[in-house]
Amino acid sequence: MRALTWHGKHDVRVDTVPDPKIVNPRDAIIKITSTAICGSDLHLYDHTIPTMKAGDVLGHEFMGEVVEVGQGNSRLEVGQRVVVPFVIACGQCYFCQQQQFAACDNSNPAETADMSEFLYGYPMTGAFGYSHLTGGYAGGQAEYVRVPYSDVGPIVIPDGIEDEKVLFLSDILPTGWMAAENCEIKPTDTVAVWGCGPVGLFAVQSAFALGAHRVIAIDHYPHRLDLARSMGAEVIDFEEVDVREALVEMTGGIGPDACIDAVGMESHGVTADSVMDKVKAAVKLVTDQTHGLRQVIIACRKGGKISIPGVYGGVTDKFPIGALMEKGLSVKSGQTHVQKYMPRLLNMIMEGKLNTTFLISHRMSLEEAPQGYKMFKEQQNEVTKVVLKPHGVTSH
Amino acid sequence: MTSSISHTAHDDAPLSAAKNPNLIPEYGEGGVRHGDVLIGRSVTINKPRQELYAFWREFDNLPKFMHNVRSVSIKNRTHSHWVIEAPGGKTVEWDSKITDDEPGRLIAWESIDGASVRNSGRVEFLDSPDGRGTVVRVTLTYDPPAGTVGKLIAKLFQKEPKVQARQDLRRFKQLMETGEIATAQPPDAAPRA
Fold first, then answer.
1. Which residues on B lie below 8 Å from A26 (Cβ)?
2. Residue B160: which CATH number?
3. Contact list, A135 vs chain B (CB under 8 Å)
4. Does residue B191 belong to any structural domain of this protein?
5. What distance, in Å, lies between the first and last C-alpha atoms of chain B?
6. pLDDT score of B149 more than 70
7. Statement to judge: residues A120 and A157 lie in one domain
8. Does the residue B187 lie in any domain?
9. A199 and A160 in a common domain
10. For residue A185, which of A226, A161, A214, A222 has the smallest C-alpha distance?
11. Which of A74, A207, A352, A386 pairs as cysteine with A372 (C-beta 3.0–4.6 A)?
12. A306 is in which domain, residue-wise?
C-alpha cells in the first residue's frame, strides 16, 4: 500500500510499504477514506519529539471502512464506517475502566513502554503514528491501517453523514472539548485560549458549549483570529498588544478565570527566554519551548484554572512555579481520553450543535501529503487544516 | 527464602528498590547470599488472584509472556525443566522445583543443586485493597556464575534480568487483562518503509 512515512526533519515521503495484517484477535483493518495532518504532526516534522525512526508511517487522525475483523472482535463488522481514536486503549485495565483511556496500561508494547517509564515515571499509552515512545504503531496517513483493540476504540458512523463532519472525532474535537471541560467552566466565566489552531478553535467552540460567558482567543495569524471570531470569541493579536495587560483590561482587572494552552511546544514568542530555549534546543538538550505556557500562567487570575491540551515532551527552564503556587492555580493536562468523549460529541454533531468543518482549508490526495506538511508548516495563516483522501473522493 | 528479605532494614520499601545492592544481607541456606542479583517488580492486574495463580501455576504457560524462556517442561507436580535463550543462539538449561505453593496466594521455586545458574523465584498474588484487582509481586534471585561461560551468562542475567522481568510482567498483565499481547512489530503489525 501507499503511506506517508517519516525520514527525518522536514523529510516526509509517500512510500510503498507492506499492507498491515491482523496479528491479534481483537485487531481490525481499516481502509482509510479520510485522514488529516494534525498540528502535533508538525512536532514530528520538526523532529522535536524523540524516538522517531526513518520509515515510520505517520498519521493519527483517520477514519474509514472496516475491511477485516479479527476473531476476537464481535462488535465490528466488515463494511461499517468508523472513526478511530488516536489513543490506543484496551478497555480492560484499571485506567480504561475509569475512562482514562489515554492512560491505558496495556496498549504500549512491553519493550517500548520502558522509554516512557524512564522519562515520565510510568509507561504511557500507545498511539497511532506518533514515535516509538507511544509504541511505534503505524499511523493512518496511509491506504490501510491495523487497529488494535478494535472492539473498544472505533465508533461506528451512521450512513448519510459525510466524512469531514466526523473525522475530527479522532483527536482534535475531543481534545478541544476536554481542554474546555478541564476548565470546570461556570456560567460567569471568561476563558482565554492561547493558539487558534484546530485544537484552540475547537476549545473556543467547546467552552461556549459548556457555558462560558466569554471566550478570548489569542494568536498572531489574522485568518486564524477571524475563524475564532466566527465562533464567537473576542480576539487578541499577541504581536500587536501585551497579552497580559490586554486580558487584565478586558476582564475588569480580575484576569481570565480559566486559561487554555492550545499551543504546546511550538510557541512563537520572540522574548529573551524563548531565544534561550532555541539555543538549548540547537545544542540538542531536550528543552521544550514554553514561552506561551509562561504567559498563560502569568495572565491567569488568582485561583484560576490552567488547562494544557498543547503537547510537550521533555523538560523546561524558567517555569513560573512561584506564580503557580502563590496565585493558587489548578492545572489539568494530558492526552485526550478520546473514547470517553466520542459518543457525546458524535450526537452533538448529528444534532447540528457543533460546526466541525469550518476549519478545513485544504483537501489533497495522499500522494500530495508531503506538500501538505510543508504548507501547514510554512503557511499557518492560510493553511488551517489539511484533509487527505487516500482512496480519492468517495460518495459518503 | 526471598520472603524473609522483602524489606530493607530501616523502612517499608522492598529490598529490590535499594540503591546499593551490596547492602543485601547474607541469609541462610536456600536464601539470598551476598553477591546475588535480586530483582523485584510489582504490577496490579485487573483479574481475580485465583485466575492469575492458576495460569502461572501451569509453568508451561510461562514462555507465553517470558520472552527469554524458550520452554518449561513439566516433569511432575513440583519439578520442571527450563530452557532459557542466551545470546548468540545458545541456550542455558536447568531443573527447578517448587518449594512453596499456596493456591491463589503464592508460588515459590528454585533451581536444583548443580544448575549452571543458581536461581530462585517467587510470585505472590494479593488482593488490591481498593478493588483494582490483584497485586502480583515477583521476586527473582540469581547467583551470577564465574568463568568464561559465566561471563556469557552474566551478560544475560546480570544486566538484563531487571529489564526482562519488567517486560515479562507487562506482557503477563496484557495477556491476563486483554487476552492478547500488545505488539507493533513490523511488517505485519506495523508496516514501515
1. 178-180
2. 3.30.530.20
3. 182, 184
4. no
5. 51
6. no
7. yes
8. no
9. no
10. A214
11. A386
12. 173-333
Burial of B89 (0-12, 13-18, 19+ CB in 10 A): exposed
Whether residue A137 contacts residue A78, with contact meaning beta carbons closer than 8 Å, is answered with no
Rounded to the nearest integer, the mean pLDDT of chain A is: 93
* Most A-contacting residue of B174, B181, B185 (CB-CB within 10 A), to test interface: B174
Interface touch A21/B189, C-beta < 8 Å: yes
Give me the sheet containing A2-8, strands edge to edge: A11-16, A2-8, A56-57
- What pLDDT does residue B21 have? 57
Q: Residue B163: which pLDDT band, with cuts at 50, 70 and 90?
A: confident
Cβ of residue A116 closer than 8 Å to a chain B Cβ: no
Q: How many CA atoms lie within 13 A of B110 on its CB side?
A: 16
Q: Is B167 on the interface with A (CB under 8 A)?
A: yes
ipTM of the complex: 0.90
What pLDDT does residue A278 have?
58
Give the gap in angstroms from C-alpha B43 to the nearest C-alpha of chain A.
10
Cβ contacts of B112 within 8 Å, gap of 6 or more:
B79, B94, B95, B96, B97
Same domain, yes or no, for A42 and A125?
A: yes
Residue A97's CATH number: 3.90.180.10
Say if B134 falls within a structural domain.
yes
For B135, residues 6+ apart whose C-beta sits below 8 A from its C-beta are: B42, B43, B44, B124, B125, B126, B127, B128
Q: Does A5 touch chain B (CB under 8 A)?
A: yes
Element (H, E) at B43: strand B37-45
The whole-model pTM stands at: 0.91
B184, part of any domain: no
Amino acid, res. A56: D
* Residue B16 confidence class, pLDDT cut points 50, 70, 90: confident
| CATH code, A196 | 3.40.50.720
What pLDDT is attached to residue A118?
Answer: 87
Q: What's the pLDDT at B3?
A: 44
Give residue-wise pLDDT tens across range A233-288: 999 999 999 999 999 999 999 999 999 999 988 655 444 455 555 555 554 545 56
Give the pLDDT of residue A272.
47
DSSP, collapsed to helix, strand or coil, labels residue B93 as: strand
